[in-house]
Structures are given as C-alpha cells and as structure tokens.
Write a structure and sequence with these properties.
Oligomer: single chain
CATH class of the largest domain: Mainly Alpha
Strand content: under 5%
Number of helices: 7
Shape: globular
Low-confidence stretches: none
Number of strands: 0
Structural class: mainly alpha
CATH topology of the largest domain: Hypothetical Protein Yqey, Chain: A, domain1
Largest sheet: none
Mean pLDDT: 88
CATH superfamily of the largest domain: Uncharacterised protein YqeY/AIM41, N-terminal domain
Length: 152
C-alpha cells in the first residue's frame, strides 16, 4: 500500500472518529502532498509524488514543527508548543522507525564503502546514498557531522 493511500485511509478514519486535532494534521499532510503533485506537474512529471517524496515531506514537516515547538517553549507559549508536539506524533506514525546510533554508524560505514569515499570531497555522494536508502529514518543534520568525522 502506498504512503498516500495509508495517509488517506487515516484521514477517513479520523473523520469517522471525529478526532479533530488528528484530522487537521492529516489534512495538512495531504495538502503538502498535493502541493508537491502540482509542482511536479509543472516540471513535466505527470506521475505525482512517490513514496520517497512523501517521506521527505513528512520529515520536513516534523522538523518544522520541532523548531516551532522549541520557539514556542522559549517564548513561554506552552499551549502552542504542546499542539506542535501533538502534530509531530501524528506525522511520525507514517515515518519509518528511527535508526539507533549504532545502526546510523553502520549505515554510514556501508555508504562510505559503497561509494568508495576517501575524503570530505565525497561527502555529497555519501549523503545522497544515505538519503536514498534511509529517508525518514535518521536525522541528516547530525549525520553530516558523523560522516565528516569518519572521513577525516
């Protein structure tokens, strides 16, 4: 079953359950996917967003909400921060399981071996390989530093 179908089914179930907060979050996710479909059509891609694209959208949405929650907490708006955290929980249901630190290091070592990387100049190739395989499963902001350490 595709990610899009899974999200649509969850949206329908949220409507039936009258879960207003969950429903609004799922509608935001659906709107983001449709926005990407429209952008892809403009680029000549009639197929629309694939599962990998949907995973990227979901990861981006989680990251945005984490930043917003942090900002709200710093500003003393705990009610808004809690809402952002609740949205993160709903979105993360559709993301694959996060890798442990050991699994991330193992994935980095594997990617370095596959690419044949020998210096920091190859970092882009390694990150591309990791993003292709592990989108949504690791924080690529932290992974970049780990890859640099491995290559030095």
């Amino acid at each position: 079953m595709s990610m899009r179908t899974t999200i649509t089914d969850a949206l329908k179930q949220a409507m039936k359950d009258r879960a207003a907060d969950r429903l609004s979050t799922l509608r935001l996710v659906n709107a983001a996917i449709k926005d990407l479909d429209i952008a892809m059509r403009g680029d000549g891609n009639d197929e629309g967003a694939q599962d990998a694209d949907v995973l990227q959208i979901l990861s981006k949405m989680v990251k945005q909400r984490q930043e917003s929650a942090r900002t709200y907490e710093e500003g003393g708006r705990l009610d808004l921060a809690e809402r952002e955290v609740a949205e993160i929980a709903v979105i993360e249901e559709f993301l694959p399981q996060k890798l442990s630190d050991d699994e991330v290091v193992s994935a980095i070592d594997t990617a370095i071996a596959e690419v044949g990387a020998s210096s920091v100049r190859d970092m882009g190739k390694i990150m591309g390989a990791l993003k292709a395989k592990y989108t949504g499963q690791m924080d690529f902001g932290k992974v970049g530093a780990l890859v640099k350490d491995r290559l030095n």
